[in-house]
Specification:
This protein is of the alpha+beta class. 13% of the residues lie in helices and 19% in strands. The protein binds zinc ion.
């Protein structure tokens, strides 16, 4: 028995289905990191439109390297430079 596994076939299938190859998450530019901007209340506002609050510290203190909403690399922008003190 012979099966056909050629990229050209897959390509044709995608085109038939509407031209979108594979799964694509909604409107995020995956080449850029997800910027988390902290406001003065300690809430982090993510680039992809969500908000998150850590009970202690920020993304780096909690070992968060990727945004849990969009899966991109996380870039933390703390409210104040220089950290706490
Ligand atoms: Zn994100």
């Amino acid at each position: 028995m012979r099966t056909r596994h050629s990229p050209a076939n897959q390509d044709r299938l995608y085109r038939a289905l509407g031209g979108q190859p594979a799964v694509r998450p909604p409107q995020v530019d995956r080449r850029k990191p997800c910027v988390w901007q902290q406001d003065e209340n300690g809430t982090w506002h993510t680039d992809c439109g969500n908000a998150f609050e850590f009970s202690d510290g920020g993304p780096s203190e909690n070992g968060a390297r990727y945004c849990q909403y969009c899966g991109r690399l996380l870039m933390a922008r703390p409210c104040r430079e220089g950290g706490r003190r």
